[in-house]
TrEMBL record:
Keywords attached to this entry: Dioxygenase, Oxidoreductase
Any Pfam family the entry gives: PhyH
Family matches, as InterPro entries: Phytyl_CoA_dOase-like
Name of the protein in its database record: Phytanoyl-CoA dioxygenase family protein
Gene Ontology molecular function, alphabetical: 2-oxoglutarate-dependent dioxygenase activity; iron ion binding
Superkingdom of the organism of origin: Bacteria
Keyword Oxidoreductase: yes
Region ranges (Disordered): 259-278
Length: 278
């Protein structure tokens, strides 16, 4: 059964601009979540391309990252009307696919993601404006115990702050972060599988390690706006028209994994900073 997601209300749009994030309940149906999980589990190309990202404690999270949405189930989700229309409504412009990634925290060993802003390093890619956002879709249920996404509510209004390396990740300036932790409310984005959180590129976010017996997989797609076409050629694409597909395409394509021709990013190809995620 195809999932029907209601258009955003004025109240939801206002909340996103006020808080810097918005949770969308039941973005994917139970059937669609099951298809994504099935595709991931049999996707040898995706798994073999995963980077092991270490946090400051040496714990590891597997991260697979690709620039262009294919004709697999991940591409159908990233190009679906329910997702693209939502991002365009929140960012008030035509959007294009900047990149997608699968963040997989294994039980008991999955690492943390340091506190950071995505625009803290996308700025270095030649994007003049922070008019960008990410959507994190819970493939597994997300809880405090398994390292759910955390955000600092309203922190996007500060603008970009300085970032530096922490372990193998890029983190926000520690002194500034200490002030931010006192100033802003910390929100744990606990969600059932299929729900999603959309967050602004300047929203401070991070997550803790997975200390539970459950996996915590998240499918993240990042969108840039047409008017923010990067002025610097780098490891993510410039403006590339996005071909939307009907929401029904997700179920129609089924548990189709990525093609062998899909290109995944290597850490060595990231020429602006160490890759970070949620």
């Amino acid at each position: 059964m195809n999932n029907k997601v209601k258009p955003l209300t004025d109240e939801q749009i206002a909340a996103f601009h006020r808080d810097g994030f918005l949770i969308i309940e039941k973005l994917l149906s139970e059937e669609e979540v099951a298809l994504v999980k099935e595709a991931c589990l049999k996707d040898e190309v995706l798994m073999q391309s995963a980077m092991e990202m270490k946090d400051s404690q040496g714990r590891k999270t597997d991260l697979s990252l690709w620039n262009h949405p294919g004709d697999d189930i991940y591409g159908m989700i990233a190009r679906s009307e329910r997702v693209v229309d939502t991002m365009e409504k929140l960012l008030d412009d035509e959007v294009y696919h900047y990149h997608s990634k699968l963040s997989a925290k294994k039980p008991r060993v999955g690492g943390a993601w340091e506190w950071h802003q995505d625009y803290g390093y996308w700025y270095q890619n030649g994007c003049l404006f922070p008019d960008m956002a990410s959507i994190f879709i819970a493939v597994d249920r997300c809880t405090k115990e398994n390292g759910c996404l955390q955000v600092l509510k309203g922190s996007h209004k500060m603008g970009r702050i300085e970032h530096s390396f922490t372990g193998e990740q890029t983190g926000a300036d520690p002194e500034r972060m200490a002030w931010c932790m006192e100033k802003f409310e910390r929100v744990y984005c606990e969600m059932p599988a299929g729900s999603a959180v959309i967050f602004h590129s300047n929203t401070l976010h991070g997550s803790e390690g997975n200390l539970s017996d459950e996996s915590r997989w998240g499918l993240i797609s990042v969108y840039n706006t047409k008017h923010n076409d990067p002025l610097r050629e780098h490891h993510h694409p410039g403006y590339t028209p996005l071909e939307k597909v009907p929401d029904s395409a997700i179920v129609t394509i089924g548990a189709k994994p990525s093609e062998k021709t899909q290109k995944y990013l290597n850490q060595e190809e990231d020429d602006t900073s160490t890759t970070v995620d949620v």
